[in-house]
Specification:
Layout lengths: L11 E3 L3 E4 L6 H15 L12 H16 L4 E7 L5 E11 L4 E8 L8 H16 L4 E7 L3 H9 L3 E11 L6 E10 L24 H4 L19 H4 L5
Parallel strand pairs: 5-6
Antiparallel strand pairs: 1-2, 2-3, 3-4, 4-5, 6-8, 7-8
């Protein structure tokens, strides 16, 4: 198998209303602000939202995220509005196995932008990106059985519930055991469904991966996020809210 670091694919792509891209250094402060503002909604599902780290921690995190994206180890993505660059959520492709290849999608939305179909649109777009650009054979979504809104996103995006992992993990607040839904799509049946009223216009390879065009130096200062989640990879991508 070719070393994944040699794979060439874009740092960003578009859906109808969103530009979906890897993290940039200037994301640190607005990202932290969005988490703080959405903390009550995120905390039950996201261990990383219980105690919000410092802005310095986020400055390190977004730089690490960019390095991991370029190393093809983890594809953390920001969801930004086309019209003004506002960050309205986070997502990405995690738990990557390039030998298959297979991925897991995580997602979260800033509370003020939840309920507008942005996360379903993003999940549809990222799923298509995984299959059509990255050559995925399998894409998964995992969420807490009690996380009704996250499971609804998976179903709207055309993912099939394959099963439930019983007593899969400890709840990060109560310490009790919880169950996890496993949703998936396979290459044999791409069949991506659109969210209500949303026509996806994904550009699988809108431009080469170049620093000037994929890492813009300036963005609007008012970055935001939403309330449906993927923070980094493993634990957070299993517990989502939309």
């Amino acid at each position: 198998m070719e070393n994944p670091i040699l794979l060439d694919f874009p740092y960003s792509f578009e859906t109808e209303r969103l530009i979906i891209r890897g993290p940039l250094p200037d994301d640190a402060a607005p990202l932290r602000q969005a988490v703080v503002e959405s903390q009550p909604e995120l905390k039950p599902w996201m261990p990383w939202a219980v105690d919000v780290p410092t802005e310095e921690w986020y400055r390190v995190r977004v730089r690490e995220g960019r390095l991991k994206f370029l190393a093809r180890e983890d594809l953390w993505m920001m969801l930004t509005l086309k019209e003004d660059g506002l960050i309205i959520g986070g997502s990405g492709l995690h738990r990557i196995d390039w030998a298959v290849p297979k991925f897991e999608i995580g997602y979260w939305a800033r509370t003020s932008h939840a309920g507008r179909g942005y996360i379903t649109e993003a999940v549809n777009g990222i799923t298509r990106f995984a299959f059509e650009t990255l050559g995925a054979r399998r894409v998964e979504i995992r969420c807490d059985v009690k996380n009704v809104r996250s499971a609804a996103v998976a179903r709207r995006a055309g993912f099939e519930l394959e099963g439930t992992f019983r007593l899969d993990a400890r709840d990060h607040i109560t310490g009790g055991l919880r169950d996890t839904y496993i949703f998936a799509q396979g290459r044999a049946g791409l069949g991506i469904r659109q969210g209500p009223g949303k026509s996806l216009s994904l550009t699988p390879n809108p431009w080469p991966l170049t620093l000037q065009r994929t890492w813009p130096q300036s963005h609007p200062s008012a970055y935001h996020r939403c309330s449906c989640a993927s923070a980094s990879a493993s634990a957070s991508s299993r517990r989502l809210r939309c």
